Amino acid sequence: MALTGVLRPGHAQVRVLNLEESVRFYRDVLGLVETGRDAQGRVYFKCWDERDHNSYVIREADRAGIDFFGFRVLDKATLDKFDADLRAYGLATERIPAGEMLETGERVRFTLPSGHVMELFADKTKVGNGIPLVNPAPWCKARDHGIAPIRLDHALLYGPNVAEVQKIFTEVLGFYLVERVLTPDGNANAAIWLSCGQKVHDIAFAEYPEPGKLHHCSFLMESWDQVLRAGDIMSMNQVAVDIGPTRHGVTRGCTIYAWDPSGNRFETFMGGHLPYPDYETMTWTFDNFGQGLDYPQRKLHETFLSVVS
Amino acid sequence: MAHTVSIEDADVRYACAPQESLLSGLHRLGLRGIPVGCRGGGCGVCKVEITEGEFSTRTMSRDHVSDDDLAHRRLLACRVYPSSDLSLKVIGKLQKKVCTPADRPLP
Ligand code: FES
Ligand SMILES: [Fe+2]
Q1: Using CA positions, which residue lies closest to atom 3 of ligand 1?
Q2: Which residues of A touch B45 (CB under 8 A)?
Q3: Is B63's CB within 8 Å of A308's CB?
């Protein structure tokens, strides 16, 4: 088996200012499937085509932003090995017991030098995607409810010390650097796109003075048509749209950025090129960041750099 | 009935209905003045200080609104709804960029 180690983004927990308003948004507008609520009042969602019990969890709080972002790893032995490797590298790790999140096994938690809390886990109950495993249909009714992305694809996080974050992901967790944007002086990276498989990115970071900030969680759409349909649904529901529909130069992905009712940005995304771990990193100079963000408009939208939660 | 909102030190006045946020009233008219971000009370770029008038609010992220801010009516314009004529000052982190032409080149 070629894909080992970290398999994919597994969950994000995001803070919202009003729980029920946000449930209506995520369930009926974004079209996620609500899969449970726990004793802490958290509400759990998955995308219709995901098989694990949850991938996106919201919690009511007095401030917006992200609590943590988690990756599924291959198995328990892999989880233990990453825990040991992270400690050997010099990071403190913490074990969160199985069941603390619904239908989720033990998690290894650590904090990046960018201020973001990351988690690794090996178990989450497979509840399926509503399609049988024998003679499966290509989709089920849930695909047509709301925007209905097929999976949690990646996140872009803003914080300090991106160079150190890059080392942790590439030297300990087995990710590789797919693309980067240089700082204006060309001596460092302003933003990095990291992959743990063959997706164009599984997580991305941008240098920012305040730690632990969320730029966006991204949800994968099946086609450009579905991205345009997402834009229609956003407008029908007066969702605050930031950028798009357009295409990123970085990743080549097609995109809309918009905000949830608490000001957490999310993305409906599709496409992107298909990198391999042996490929050379692609580099964007800062003066071409506008094309990297919005290729047709060649515009470095001000909100991209300054609006985070 | 719409109320009149005045942005001090920018010489901008606009009409804003009670069910419309201070930010969306401005935005609807295509006027610049207060920076527009998430429009959900989460990002803090639309921060203003209400210097005169009555209003109601919806929840705002406390990352951007401290107790002291609340006491001094320094609030997020996307979560403030006028119930009388209002005056305000723009004080958000994008303040230095405020009230300049829309086609201003980026830094
Ligand atoms: S626009 Fe983000 S808090 Fe008002
Ligand atoms: Fe993205």
Answers
A1: B41
A2: 306-307
A3: no
pLDDT digits (tens, 9 = 90+) for A101-144: 999 999 999 999 999 999 999 999 999 999 999 999 999 999 99
Residue B97 in any domain: the answer is no
* Ordered domains of chain A (ranges, CATH): 6-127 (3.10.180.10), 151-306 (3.10.180.10)
Ligand lying closest to the C-alpha of residue A257: 2
Q: How far is B4 from chain A (nearest CA, A)?
A: 24
ipTM of predicted complex: 0.89
Ligand 1 binding site (Cβ under 6 Å of any ligand atom): A 263; B 23, 36-39, 41-46, 76, 78
Give the structural domain span for B33.
3-90
Per the structure, the count of domains in chain B is 1
Q: Which of A203, A117, A187, A107 is nearest to A154 (CA)?
A: A203
Residue with tokens 């632990």, as numbered in its chain: A212
CA A294 to chain centre: 19
pLDDT in tens, A192-250: 999 999 999 999 999 999 999 999 999 999 999 999 999 999 999 999 999 999 999 99
- What is the reported pTM? 0.95
CB A97 within 8 A of CB A49: no
Residue B57 lies in a domain: yes
Closest ligand, as measured to the CA of B26: 1
Active-site amino acid positions of A: 154, 201, 216, 248, 257, 267
